[in-house]
């Protein structure tokens, strides 16, 4: 008997902003591009249940329901004491709970054809101070959320979503920034964390067989959203502040939907070179 095929996508930082746009676009594109018998298990990770519910509602495309949604709330990346347990909670929904879903394959067979992990969660880390005025304690806290927690999900995914769980192909997406590859004044927390994330992704790409595992760092461009408003309002460097204000005034910021479409097309087309850094404007 033919077994229905299932794909997996986990979005860490799915509660709002670009993460919500990515989750919604992934569900839409998946349903538009894959055969009707194929299903998507979409795991939405964030802090607040209510925000994840809003993302869930946006991710169920009209027409025949082909998206199984699993929100995993109360995941605060700043809480390192709970990090292992939170990573396990997320991956348990993949390796354990999916076995109870109705169209699951026989024991011993891989449960997903393709698996994607999107690491989107991130913070700005303060933009008012130059490097000389930064405190290492604040930087350590910032790196906990933006780099340490990122590595925890990244490594656990590679270990646990193995060939027994995912048969054909898996992808890890690091939501990056131009600041990962270009130094600008006042980004003394954000830029080094994004650079570290990209290098970690590149090392993984060098280690893993790209026929099975690919890694993408995607820089979404300056988005028309709340994070970008905070940039305009708090950036200590007058030149950049003017630049971003002008972009906003002229309507030149990138829409989250456009950037999410580009990211999801890259993931689903799967023609990028593993370990590369691709910008929305590329
Ligand atoms: N906005 C831009 O112009 C821009 C440009 C380049 C790159 N990016 C990158 O795009 C990604 C998404 O940013 P965004 O623009 O959508 O900003 P955002 O709306 O502030 O989204 C940040 C995401 O990170 C999550 N997050 C923050 N701290 C967390 C914590 N301690 N524990 C768990 N989750 C946490 C937020 O969850 P909550 O909802 O719980 O706060 C939210 O889902 C980030 O990695 C950012 O660096 C953004």
Automatic annotation (TrEMBL):
Keyword line: Cytoplasm, NADP, Oxidoreductase
Chief place of localization: cytoplasm
GO CC term (a single one): cytoplasm
GO-annotated molecular function: sepiapterin reductase (NADP+) activity
Biological process per Gene Ontology, one example term: tetrahydrobiopterin biosynthetic process
InterPro entries recorded: Biopterin_syn/organic_redct, NAD(P)-bd_dom_sf, SDR_fam
Compartments (UniProt record): Cytoplasm
Name of the protein: Sepiapterin reductase
């Amino acid at each position: 008997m033919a077994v229905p095929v299932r794909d997996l996508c986990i979005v860490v930082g799915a509660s709002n902003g670009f993460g919500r746009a990515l989750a919604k676009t992934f569900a839409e594109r998946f349903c538009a591009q894959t055969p009707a018998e194929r299903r998507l298990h979409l795991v939405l990770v964030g802090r607040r249940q209510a925000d994840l519910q809003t993302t869930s509602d946006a991710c169920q495309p009209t027409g025949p329901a082909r998206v199984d949604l699993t929100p995993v709330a109360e995941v605060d990346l700043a809480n390192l004491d709970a990090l292992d347990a939170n990573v396990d909670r997320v991956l348990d929904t993949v390796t354990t709970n999916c076995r109870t879903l109705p169209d699951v394959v026989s024991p011993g067979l891989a449960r997903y054809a393709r698996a994607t992990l999107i690491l989107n969660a991130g913070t700005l880390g303060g933009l008012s101070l130059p490097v000389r005025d930064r405190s290492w304690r604040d930087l350590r806290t910032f790196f906990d959320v933006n780099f340490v927690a990122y590595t925890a999900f990244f490594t656990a995914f590679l270990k646990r979503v193995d060939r027994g769980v995912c048969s054909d192909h898996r992808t890890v997406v690091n939501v990056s920034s131009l600041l990962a590859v270009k130094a600008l004044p006042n980004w003394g927390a954000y830029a080094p964390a994004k650079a570290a994330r990209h290098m970690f992704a590149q090392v993984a790409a060098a280690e893993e067989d790209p026929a099975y595992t690919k890694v993408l760092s995607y820089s979404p461009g300056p988005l028309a959203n709340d994070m970008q408003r905070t940039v305009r309002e708090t950036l200590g460097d007058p030149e950049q502040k003017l630049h971003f204000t002008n972009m906003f005034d002229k309507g030149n910021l990138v829409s989250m939907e456009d950037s999410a479409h580009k990211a999801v097309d890259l993931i689903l087309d799967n023609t990028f070179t593993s370990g590369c850094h691709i910008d929305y404007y590329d």
